[in-house]
Amino acid sequence: MDTNFEILKGDSFKILAQLEPGTFDFIFADPPYLLSNDGLSVKSGKQVSVNKGDWDKSQGFDEDLEFHLRWISQCKVLLSSNGTIAISGTRHSIYKCGIALEMLGFRILNEIIWFKPNGAPNLTGRNFAESHETIIWASKSKKSKHTFNYEAMKVYDDSGDKLKSEGKQMRDVWSIPTTPMREKGHGKHPTQKPLELLERLVLACTKEGDLVLDPFCGSGTTGVASVMHNRKFVGIEKESAYTKLAISRIKNLKKAK
Amino acid sequence: MDTNFEILKGDSFKILAQLEPGTFDFIFADPPYLLSNDGLSVKSGKQVSVNKGDWDKSQGFDEDLEFHLRWISQCKVLLSSNGTIAISGTRHSIYKCGIALEMLGFRILNEIIWFKPNGAPNLTGRNFAESHETIIWASKSKKSKHTFNYEAMKVYDDSGDKLKSEGKQMRDVWSIPTTPMREKGHGKHPTQKPLELLERLVLACTKEGDLVLDPFCGSGTTGVASVMHNRKFVGIEKESAYTKLAISRIKNLKKAK
DNA sequence: TATAAAGGTGAATCCGCAC
DNA sequence: AGTGCGGATTCACCTTTAT
Question: For position A131, what pLDDT does the model report?
């Protein structure tokens, strides 16, 4: 890498297959939720079938699981021996990702809950207001010695919502507001994560100089957090509107320094 | 039922098979986590195999999924057409339960996070302190009209931890302290849930007079919450120490009234 | 009698050390 | 190299002592 970041435009599966195995220290991924079978076609090179016998067929279940097994297995190849991966999602996708991690031999280190104290209200009144997302953090294998910056995490204080007090251990439930709309300029990604969330993950799970990958990088928040804290970054994104946005966000950051 | 509750001692699979189909309005279950393959043998009557091809085999994965598919499918038969089920667990079990619900055609209504503000500390300093459990709430089918007591839920106030303010919508992240040791007498269940948690679930998901089932009822907290709020209850538990405890907890409650 | 401060206990996992 | 033991770790809660 010439610079300390690279945004690659194109299909995640194809680009993941071209990257250098064993070189990434940390991967953050917010994969598509694959809701409502929206025309996304997945043709896996690997054979993974789930024989559900006479159980009801849930439309698209096999294809979704196959999709997650495929990109996660590619990520496993790219991770260094002590590397870790963090996958974010909601109930629509996260169980399949969790299962895929188990099937692929990862060791789950934590299930982190991102609680959104300013989450959108529920308009139907038929259930509870959805106010969180889940992040599964896992190491490549049971034997690996993963990075965890324990002391760095103690400085965080979620006192705004009293989830913990400063100076104590960091818990696995984080209260972080969603990025307000007014800060989201034209073209920002619909599922953009707050910068603070990614900063926390990067600071917890990586060392300075480490190489970070985001295979579905969107508007590049993972890259911003990584470069901001002197980690190197590779992002993959197929929409050119987002690759441009990601590049400019990270470049502006570098200029500001 | 002569009284408004019944505790059945024995094997959950066998007893579930004997109960009257379509009669339960709400099921709460905290199934075993099946950790470390501790000799629990599961022989499913249904054929469910997961062909993992050349993926790594995670010891016990198939058996665990089969176990959850089996008891959940039995529960589906027992649910009334508009009934719902709530399944609690940690990352060790909850992904398989979520997958099983999807495979069996349930409609997931919410993923509720029980945040434990007083959760046990992490002693290793190698990851974040685990401070939550997950509860998946699902209806029997996409078409069913489930019960949700929207207004009743607005009275709750998590202000002790500022997760919400009284009078607003109830979110899907609940801050409820674990039951302190001093309130757990001899013989109490190791994974006993706080009464407040079960009360909230029962009040949200059932009407007065409804019939509630807990297939792994332990020390009977689900029964206490149900009877306390004029719901009928059936619990299943194989350990006689816990069946006795559950009966006495619910009887004492009735005496007090 | 209440409230406050101080001290002791327990939980699960990883590490190093001895063999 | 594999096994096995003991120590270290953190926080909430319980008990004891002090004001």
Answer: 93
* Phi, psi (deg, nearest 5) at residue A174: -115, 130
The nearest alpha carbon in chain B to A135 belongs to: B91
Strand C at less than 7 A from CB of A145: yes
- Work out the average pLDDT over A195-207: 95
Whether residue B44 contacts residue B70, with contact meaning beta carbons closer than 8 Å, is answered with yes
Q: What is the pLDDT of residues B137-162, one digit of tens each?
A: 999 988 889 998 877 767 665 544 44
What are the chain B neighbours of A95 within 8 Å (beta carbons)? 94-96, 98-99, 102
For chain A, positions 19-48, list CB contacts with chain B under 8 A: 46-48
pTM of the model: 0.89
Confidence of residue A165 (pLDDT cuts 50, 70, 90): low
The answer to whether A148 and B146 have CB atoms below 8 angstroms apart is no
A29-63 per-position pLDDT tens digit: 999 987 544 333 333 333 333 433 333 334 578 88
pLDDT, tens digit (0-9, with 9 covering 90-100), for B42-62: 322 222 233 333 233 345 788
C-alpha dihedral sign at A52, A56, A62, A68: negative
| Angstrom distances, CA of residue B80 to CA of A54, A239, B86, B106, B137 | 21, 46, 14, 13, 15
Q: Which domains does chain A have, with CATH numbers?
A: 5-32+62-256 (3.40.50.150)
- Cβ-Cβ contacts under 8 Å, B88 against chain A: none
Rounded distance between C-alpha atoms, residue A112 and residue A133, angstroms: 9
In terms of Cβ atoms closer than 10 Å to its own Cβ (0-12, 13-18, 19+), residue A158 is: buried
CA-nearest residue to B169 within chain A is A129
Query: From the CA of B187, how many Å to the C1' of C8?
Result: 24
| Residues forming a β-bridge with A114 | A133, A174
8 A C-beta contact, residue B79 and residue B85: yes
| Spatial separation of the C-alpha atoms in residues B84 and B100, rounded to whole Å | 15
Paired tokens of B72: 């959940």
Shortest alpha-carbon distance between residue A70 and chain B (Å): 11
